[in-house]
Amino acid sequence: MSMSLLTFKGPFRTVVRLHRHTLWALAALTAVCLAAVAALRSWAGPAAESGPPNEGWRLLQLGMQYTGTGLLFLPVLVGAFAAGPLTARELESGTWRLALTQSSGPRAWLGARVLVAATAAALASAVLVGIYRLGWARVPNTHQLHWADRGTYEATGPVLVAYCLLGVALGVLVGQLVRRTLAAMAVTGLLTSLAVLGFGSLRWSILPTQTNTLPYPGRPFGAPGSALVTDSGLLTGSGERLPYDACFARTKNLDNCPADMNITARYTEFHPASHHWPTQLIETSLALSLAVIALWAAFRLARTGRA
Questions:
Q1: Which of 22, 53, 57, 81 has CB 3.0 to 4.6 Å from 44, enough for a Cys bridge?
Q2: Parallel/antiparallel/unpaired status of strands 241-243 and 210-215
Q3: What strands lie across the sheet with 263-271, from one edge to the other?
C-alpha cells in the first residue's frame, strides 16, 4: 500500500472529477447542518438552568436527538458508496480497464479510490462531530441525549470517524469481491451495520464498572447523576446480590423488606462520565485496526489481478 503521491496524482484527480457532485453535495449538507445548529443554538439562548426552556431550546433538543440517530447511518452510507459507485460499478461495467491504461496498475486504481473516499469521509464526519457537539453542549444529558446513549455517544467523539473509515475499507474490499453495484452496496451496508452494532453491544465491557453501596434502608441509588447505571439491587448479610425489586414480591413495597431476607445494603454498578473518552479512544483504535485489516485484504486482492 506504500505508493508515492505522484503515483496517485492522475487517478486521484480522475476520481475527484468523476464524483465531484457527490463531494459537493456532502460539503453542502455539512454547511446546512452547521447553519441549522447555529441558528437553533442562538434561538435557544443560555443553558436551560438559567430559566424555563423556550421553543428554540426544545427544537434544538429534538434536532439533536434525530441528528444523533441519523449519524449512526453515516458509516453505512459511506461504506455503501465506496462499495457501489466507487468500486463495483467500474468493475461491473469494465471501465476500470481504461483507467488501468492511464495508471501504474490495479493498486494505484484502488489507492486513488481509497484516498478520495477516506479523506472525504474523515473530514466530513469530523466536522459533523464538531457541529453535533456544538448543539449538544446546550442540551447535554437530557432525554435521549445522555453521553452514553446510542447516537449521542457516537456523534460526540472520534469513534464516528473510525466507523466511517471502516465503512470505506469494507466497501472497497466487498466491491472487488462482489463486482455488482447494488449487491456490493447491500453487503457492505450489512457488514458495516453489524460492526457498528457489535461494537455498541460490547463497548461498556471494555472498562470495569464502579460499584457503590449504601446502607439499607437509605437512598435507592449511589451513583452520580451523570453516570451510566448498568446494574442495581439489594445485598444480603451474606453478600448475596438480589434484584432491586426482590422485596416487592413479598410485601408489594419496594422499600419494605421482610426481616428474614436479611437485606443490609443497596448496590449500584455504573460507568462514570469520566469513562466516555477512554472508551471512545479504545473503541476507535479497535475499529481502525479492523479497517486496516480490511484495507490490507483489499490491496492484496488488487495485487493478485482480481481487480
A1: 57
A2: unpaired
A3: 210-215, 263-271, 228-236, 241-243
Mean pLDDT per 10-residue run, the chain (307 residues)?
A: 49 77 90 93 70 80 93 96 90 69 72 90 96 93 91 96 97 93 95 96 94 78 84 85 79 77 87 96 97 95 66
Query: Which residues fall within 8 angstroms of residue 148, CB to CB, at 6 or more apart?
Result: 204, 228, 271, 276
Q: What share of the chain is helix, strand, coil (3-state, %, to 5)?
A: 65, 10, 25
What would the pLDDT profile of 214-226 be if each residue is shown by its tens digit?
887 766 666 888 8
User: Using CA atoms, how far apart are residues 166 and 195, in angstroms rounded to an integer?
Assistant: 9
The helix/strand count (H/E) of the chain reads as 12, 4
DSSP 230: E
β-bridge partners, 227: none
Cell numbers placing 242: 438480589
Where b means 16+ CB within 10 Å and e means fewer, 116-139 reads: bbbebbbebbebbbebbeebbebb
Beta-strand (E) ranges in 20-79?
A: none
Per DSSP, helices labelled H in 74-180 are: 74-83, 89-93, 96-100, 106-136, 152-155, 159-178
Q: Which of 232, 241, 186, 238 is nearest to 212 (CA)?
A: 232
